[in-house]
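Work Package 3 (structural annotation) set out to generate three-dimensional models for the target panel prioritized at the project kickoff. During this period the team completed the workflow that converts sequence records into discrete structure tokens, so that structures can be stored uniformly alongside our sequence database. As a representative example, we reproduce one entry of 279 residues exactly as it appears in the project archive.
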Amino acid sequence: MSTDFQRARILLGVRLRELRTEAGLTVRDFAARCGWAPSKVSKLENGKQTATVADLDAWAAAAGQPECAAELHGRLAGLESTYRSWRRQLAAGHRAAQDALGAQHERTTVFRGFSAAVVPGVFQTPEYARSVLTRYAELHGVTRDIEGAVASRMRRQEGLYLAGRRYRVLVAEAALHTRICTRAVLADQLDRLMSVNGLSTVELGIIPLTADVRIGIGDDFWIHDDRLVIAETWHTEMWLDSADDIALYAKVWNGLSEGAVTGRAAHAVIARTRAAIGF
């Protein structure tokens, strides 16, 4: 877990402890007021568990200071502005999460992206996007609004045809083989990938399975100009805007790019994979 994230969670826990002790309540008594196990109170106070909005409302009420709920919400919002739980994001629907990404795409001129396991969303066909979004929705137990998310993702691809935009995208060869969809859908997706490889706005790099690389392949990320990094893990999407974080991800992208092939060589890797599928 990020040191910055953990530090922010600990500071929120310190404030929660202050409210409990000001109320003159022990951990056990406070837990009883909230209807929780004492261990939950301890975890929240020690920064070992991330509070929900409902937890903070209950905490402020149990401490006899309901007016502090807004302050606690602000602290939580500050913590989550950088580290956005997928489960919490998807509670508002898949389309809302895709629209938030779309807003950032509209502000960006130069993209540097990396995808390890699937074809990047900005190059996906509707059928492939539907398969990917459905699988990840099932993982998080939130399967509604898939069609809205697909439509939002497709609108984001309009940027591929805008003069002045530049998409410098690295894709691990393994992503070309990932059967997260049917063979027919994957075949169409690889055809699409070969077509976008010829766009003037796109510089596509494929990192072959046998490539010599300076750095191990890790999580997916996108660098938006030099102002924002959006990186993904299984449970969290991170929005990082500090100069140090942006410089680190730029260094990672540069290291990965050294193992990539582009242009006709990239086309050849995709075509070879496409031919093996058939159809």
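DSSP finds 13 helices and eight strands in the chain.
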